[in-house]
Design a protein that fits this description.
- The complex is a heterodimer of chains A (391) and B (253).
- Chain A is of the alpha/beta class and 391 residues long.
- Chain A contains 17 helices and eight strands.
- Chain A has a domain of 165 residues: Rossmann fold (3-Layer(aba) Sandwich), CATH 3.40.50.11890.
- In chain A, β3, α6 and β4 form a beta-alpha-beta unit.
- In chain A, α1 runs antiparallel to α11 and α3 crosses α5.
- Chain B is α/β, with parallel strands linked by helices and 253 residues long.
- Chain B folds into two domains: 107 residues, Nucleotidyltransferase, domain 5 (2-Layer Sandwich); 142 residues, ATPase, nucleotide binding domain (Nucleotidyltransferase, domain 5).
- Helices cover 39% and strands 23% of the residues of chain B.
- Chain B is built from eight helices and ten strands.
- A five-stranded mixed β-sheet of chain B has the order 3-2-1-4-5. In chain B, strands 8-7-6-9-10 form a five-stranded mixed β-sheet, sandwiched between helices.
- Chain B starts with a strand and ends with a helix.
- Classes of the chains: A alpha/beta (391), B alpha/beta (253).
- Chains A and B meet through α17 of A and α2 and β8 of B.
Amino acid sequence: MTLKKLKATDRMKQIMGGYYMMGKQTEVNGWITSGAPVELLYAMDIYPVYPENHGALIGAAKQGPYFSDFAEKRGFSRDLCSYARCDIGCVFAGTSPVGGLPKPDFLFACNNICNTVIKWYQVLSRIFKVPLFILDTPFVRKELKESYIQYVHDQLYEFVDFLEKTTGRELSDSKLKETLIKSIEGVNSYSDVLHMAKNKPSPLTCFDAFLNMAPIVCLRGTDYPIEFYAEMKKELVERVKRGEGAVENEEVRLLWDNIPVWYRLRWFAEFFADRNACLVADTYTNAWTGFISMDKSDIFWSMAETYTFIYLNIGLEHMAEAINRLINYYDVDGVVIHSNRSCKPYSFGQYELQKMIDVPSVVIEADMVDSRVFSEAQVETRLEAFLEMLK
Amino acid sequence: MIVAGIDVGSLTAKCVLLKDGELVAYKVIKVSPNLEETADKVFGEALEEAGINKGNIERIVATGYGRNKVSFADRTVTEISCHAKGALFFIPTARTVIDIGGQDSKVISIENGKVAEFVMNDKCAAGTGRFLEVMASALHLKIEDLGDVAERANRATKISSTCTVFAESEVISHLASGERVEDIVAGIHEAIASRIAAMARRVKVEPDVVLTGGVAKNKAMKKALERELGMEVKIPAEPQIVGAVGAALFAMS
């Protein structure tokens, strides 16, 4: 079977190719975690390097075990996150599928996505002998307290001091505002794309979303995502006008939970398409859709709020609520839950979540990058049985 | 109408022939590395047993982890759906099916005659038939004798490792420290039962609970599970062919 391809994906490859090229020529760069406020970097013309995106790229290139091995040989456990292992492994290997990442001038880790990033970036800091800034976001078990926001808000000011000292540049207020407005526009344009999956049949699958998510992660705050996702939306609107679904004969609509299995993206996409099932949405790409508020009088406050209350930094009740919201919005029949060996905060509590969500679900065990833990026959049986149950 | 259900598992392959909904013949054989050949062989033997010609078989459904290797099947259905259907064939009041297979164990909850929920063990042989095989070989016992040996235990030796490989060395060290073989075997049954029960609690466990798979022939296993779950566990007349019967029932519809 041939999967339907979006023209946007070619454009995305161009943009991301350019992004990686730019990294080799840039004056100042900082390595940054996926959930960190990148706007501050773009506002100071600092190039952000994303080891996690690089990890995903290595996974998609099916090179995970190869690069991970460079880290494992030095004693990094296989139980660690495979993005971290691959990133550190590539540093030791001195290369990667994109010829390695440019050496950082500083490191910026925000623990709103996990606590592995703290140790991971400390390791990088020792290897490269460059300064590290950790933005510490308190975990929101129940409510997002004002004291939490205040705490993060104050650190953002410290971070600006850190950036100014490290780079010798000054942050301009107007440039930051401009960057944040672009960031919000980019997020809105990106959300519009994901929302297209509300249509029946859906013009896109979560696999299309995974493939095309890099611009919102890496280039948020620039013009690229705004234009790219507007273009992508046009293509999807055309599909809807023609009544064309991403999957022929869409019978079952599903939601994906967790980071994709990068080295099996095509396999999963074909598996579901062959069985008239469409994964219309996922919790992962949706994590980049929300700015809670944008109070222009205190943008640091808004940023503190936004970056603290993100999907991986909230309690189970909030997570279940977020999933149920997606289930309802996209009208899905079931949830495919990826228990990801790498990503503990994402995978912890999934069996509890199963009881808290409104539709049936199935758990499959895998890893986002480390293909050594993937068992095709086991995954296939669970998914097939789940579809038999739903139909 | 005559139909066939073929269940190619990790250790054994089963074939069942149904005529107008009645069981007319079945065969169970060991799986060889060539799954296609195995499927062909078990099908051929079942036909011979029944004295039925291949041409008279209206439809064939394959299930089990080797289901996609049965090239002559009309379609495939997963072992989850097949075990539920097969269990209902033998015990119509079944609400929960526990299947302990060669490399998979699963718990299926049934509502209105359909699969409502299921859980399976993952990437680990603990709580599967394979676990029992490894233990039997470590103790120089035949797998089919394990149940009887366990019945003669005074108490159950605690096996704390959930990993098959580590449990094997634990068993050997228990032997070395003079524990009775019977007690160790009883402990092995309890270890599996507690593992299965923990998995079962993720879905609703409601009576009647039916135990299927080759391991169900082991009486000590049934008792250990009953203790863990606190309810009676029923065993179909032929627990090993439940999946194949389910497949054959799917072939009828």
